[in-house]
Amino acid sequence: MRGEFNKVEETEFVGRGGMPVRRGFAECGVKPARDASEVCYTYPDETMPDGVSNPLPSVSDDTCYACQYGSENVKYGGTVLGKRCRPYKYIWRWNYKFAL
């Protein structure tokens, strides 16, 4: 799996005296998100190293909140150029480990 997970969006635990342990993930759906190719935020050129121009399309507002499955960073050479809408939705699988 490639990419990054920046947050877990709807996770609930029921129980006492234990701890949740993340075991893996499930990819939901077989089709990519409707906005999978959209750039939702671009860092301005003045933040780019060595005066390199940002190759991503110019975006004035941070519209990542509107992405169907959230957003992910777009990196090049270790530099974050912006964010785009995440192409697939992932749900983490958890096991509940009891302290007993």
Description:
This protein is an all-beta fold and 100 residues long. The protein has a domain at 31-98. Helices cover 0% and strands 38% of the residues. It contains no helices and five strands. It has strands at 18-28, 39-42, 71-76, 79-85, 89-98. The strands form two sheets. The chain has a three-stranded antiparallel sheet with strand order 2-4-3, with no helix packed on it. A two-stranded antiparallel ribbon has the order 1-5. β3 (71-76) and β4 (79-85) form a beta hairpin.
Salient structural properties:
100 residues; mainly beta; 3-stranded antiparallel beta sheet; two-stranded antiparallel ribbon; 5 strands; elongated
The proportion of residues forming helix, as a percent range, comes to: under 10%
Mean pLDDT: 76
**Which structural category do the helix and sheet elements fall into?**
mainly beta
Number of DSSP strand runs: 5
Strand sequence of the main sheet, in spatial order?
2-4-3
Tell me what portion of residues adopts beta-strand conformation: 35-45%
User: Helix and strand succession?
Assistant: EEEEE
Largest sheet: 3 strands, antiparallel
List the helices and strands and how they pair.
Blueprint lengths: L17 E11 L10 E4 L28 E6 L2 E7 L3 E10 L2
What is the structure about, briefly put?
By secondary structure, the chain is mainly β. The protein has strands at residues 18-28, 39-42, 71-76, 79-85, 89-98. The chain has no helices and five strands.
